[in-house]
Amino acid sequence: MKPIVLRAAQPSDIPTIEDLLKAEWLPPMQIAEFLDTFWVLDQQGEVVGAAGIEMYGEIAHLRSVVVAPALRSTGEGNRLVRTALDYAQQNGARRVYLFTMHAAPFFARYGFQPLSMDDFEPGAQKSWQFLGLKQMPEIARRLTPMRLEVEPR
Q1: Ramachandran bin of 131, using left for φ above 0, alpha for ψ from -120 to 50, beta for the remaining angles
Q2: Does the pLDDT of residue 137 top 80, yes or no?
Q3: Of 4, 6, 8, 137, which has the most beta carbons under 10 Å away?
Q4: What is the CATH number of the domain that holds 44?
Q5: What is the pLDDT of residue 95?
Q6: What values do phi and psi take at 134, rounded to 5?
């Protein structure tokens, strides 16, 4: 296998990140706005995975975790999630939220617990994902919201 480098996302990565997300039916939105807290997996110049974190004070939202199908079950998704969670923890997050359609068991391995959107604290309700899903309950019903308690560093 060709070496895979985990690096900070760059503006030129946005179209490929969007394509990876669309292929998995994930929303390719607000990437540029949060690009400084996005990471990609780069395999010889090709972006093959991505993840982002949004910070809202002590609240963080993990989002856009995606890995190319050929790299599933290789630990690369774990690398992305760990990088984002470490960043959140180092920057004072106490809780990390996410929405997932099919990956609840994957995220449960990190300690994420399912909850309802009604359980999102006010700070967590500031994310564009939460606000958008409140406007689209038919989509929200298909997702599992989750939360992880973290100890800040």
Answers
A1: alpha
A2: yes
A3: 4
A4: 3.40.630.30
A5: 97
A6: -65, -30
